[in-house]
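README, section 4: Worked example with a bound small molecule

Sections 1 through 3 covered apo chains. Here we extend the same pipeline to holo records, where the ligand is supplied as SMILES alongside the sequence. The molecule in this example is pyridoxal-5'-phosphate. Nothing else about the input changes; the structure line simply encodes the ligand pose together with the chain.
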Amino acid sequence: MTDFADSPAVRRPADWNLERLERLADEHDTPLYVIDLDRVKENYARFAAAFPDADVMYAAKAHTGKAVLEAVLEVGGTIECAAWGELQRAIDAGAEPNTLQYTAVNPPDHDLDYAVDLAADAPGLTITIGATDTLDRLAERGYDGRIAIRINPGIGTGHHEKVATGADAKFGIPYEQVPEVADRVREEFDLVGLHAHAGSGVLTDGLEEHCRAISRVGEMARRVGDEHLEFVDVGGGYGVPYREEEQPLDLEKTSEMVRDAVGELDAQLKLEPGRYVVADAEVILTEVNTIKEAPDTTVVGVDASLSTMIRPAMFGSYHPMLNVSAPERGPIEATVGGPVCTSADVFAHDRPIAEPERGDVIAIGNAGSYGYELANQFHSQPKPAEVALEDGEVRVARRRETLEDVTRLER
Ligand SMILES: *Cc1c(COP(=O)(O)O)cnc(C)c1O
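The generated complex, written as structure tokens:
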């Protein structure tokens, strides 16, 4: 655990063993996800070490692969889930149901049925609600167990408007309604905590705003009586550097600022990093199949697409790229895109990269969070395989899909 916590705070594509990556691409074909489970453990342990007396839950939706959940559990992590399927997968990976937290956002009936069933045998399960409708629906199901209230702090933060949940009316109880809702929860259920998750991808620059949202949660906890709460959960959102010039979060400073923002509390502090734990632990390997000289740029066609990883198309995300086959070649400015027929299917415009040739393998870095998780079959593309590295060993964590997997449900 100690060595894990002492690991470097940032891992860039060039820090991977490039020869090994090229071999993996050769053996397992491309596009290929490669997840380093030792790095997952390091990231979790480093984060947890910065918040020694807090409860650090891994937010499963960033990467719900069994191998990742098992790695987090192995280093003592607990798991936050946002859907019934995530609860089931956490349990399948070995999580003790009493330690799980289920964050319900407009929960479908099936999700509530599942959570209430689970809680009947695991009264330690916590359900986080963001609307009083959810309370009504839980009461209808006979539930009177542990509830946390998700607060809408009215302040959103993060790398993109689509992840700035803290100011979005969809998430959480409107701030001024929280005391009244807390009274109701205390009457009908067991109020154990307050929760807020303000955004995602926060780096040093966004930390102040992020902490403003957190301070609203601390303030509300004191208003509703923190001495009667078990925990105050300030969510996730902690970013990693995607661009070469970006610096990693200073966790010590982050921890200090978060604590200051929360203020004096009797309740335990809880955090839910997702991205931070997995982002730099995974790369995508993709093979170059086309080089085309266009008047303004060199187009480099690869076999990964927005079906493999949708973040650049969906959020305009920057992902570092490295020519694994020939990192020493002189750089050219390239537009790197996949086989999908939309101009959104481009990983980078005018990006300097060691001059690619057909057959080269390119690594797309920081693919661990919301990468495989958002992979899809658009353009009838089977989802890629994922191999896992752990303790010097390689294993297939998920086999590559076949075309039969794509058409399996058709009748
Ligand atoms: C998505 C999510 C997280 C994790 O967010 P990251 O930006 O990946 O750290 C934490 N808590 C909740 C409730 C979430 O929905």
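What to look for in the output: The pocket of pyridoxal-5'-phosphate is lined by residues 59, 61-62, 80, 82, 103, 197, 200, 235-238, 272-276, 369 (CB under 6 Å). DSSP finds 13 helices and 20 strands in the chain.

Section 5 describes how to batch many such records.
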